[in-house]
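Lab notebook, bench 4. Still working through the backlog of constructs that have no structural model yet. Next entry is a single chain of 350 residues. Request: give me the structure tokens for it.
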Amino acid sequence: MEYNFDDLPNCTLVVAAFNEQDFIEAKIANTLALNYPASKLEFVFVTDGSSDLTPEIVSRYPKIKLLHSPDRKGKIAAVHRAIQQITSELIVFTDANTFLNKDALVYLCRHYADKKVGAIAGEKRVMVEETADATAGEGFYWKYESKLKAWDSELYSVVGAAGELFSIRRSLYEPVPANSVLDDFMISMRIAEKGYVIVYEPEAYAMETSSANITEELKRKIRIAAGGIQSVIWLKSLLWPFKFPVLTFQYISHRVLRWTITPFLMILVFFLNIFFVLREPSGIYFILLTAQILFYLSAYLGKVMEARKLRVKVLFIPYYFCVMNYAVLAGLLRYFFSGQSVIWEKAIRK
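Model written out:
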């Protein structure tokens, strides 16, 4: 895509940081090193609720505007407060514990030359160590997710953006409810509801370490699953294909099915397969059942290997896949019976 560096629009980078004193100096260094016309770029760090040294550290950097309130009301409340003070044409959001490639903002913001573009989703890259445990599946999952986003973007629009790195037009921002669990997803999808497209840009990426262990990753996935159900309910207009048929197809196939019935279908298919094999213990159904049993056995062995701290990456992928689908079931139960708070304890990362 052709673009003129000096013609890039005004942009504000927003970072919401809660008790990130271990990461914040590295994040600031990474942020200030980003390549973008200096006269067109501003930085806003919101540290609401932080009780550690995060606000003090940010305050040492005059190029960064610090917004801090001792009250902890959740990330979306902090983000909304920041946006009210932003006047630039574009906003880029990124997490405090992720690090961007030097030209990330350029790769994101160049797409806004197309008036149909309302938001841009960057790529998330998980840094997995050689000694990684079952969270190695997290890295594989995000590679798969990135490929889906690329295909979605080529077809019509990405179905939502992740908070690690995404951008929006300031004029299209619509405040989402204070109890939004997946605020980044909701912000971007409200823009898609207006008829604008969300573009995927893999050359703008955010890097972060994997979760410390599968227990921490499960905690995060259950929260996402609970927020997914909330989002499906709130975005019910997108379930009807009359206005944006392609977006509806992408949304249902990529998000709604994953957050609702996929785990149940997996269970149903397994037992139906057993039923057919009992009726005819040979042929294709026997092969399919054998494949399923081997897959779930591999997942169980992955769990055993993790408990013994043995590194067998080929087993981590089926284990992570099963953990993800268990998280959907747990997220459903949490949302409908106990509720998912917008304020949560973030997963511990390596």
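Notes after review: The longest helix spans residues 313-338. The chain has one domain: 5-255. Flag for follow-up if needed.
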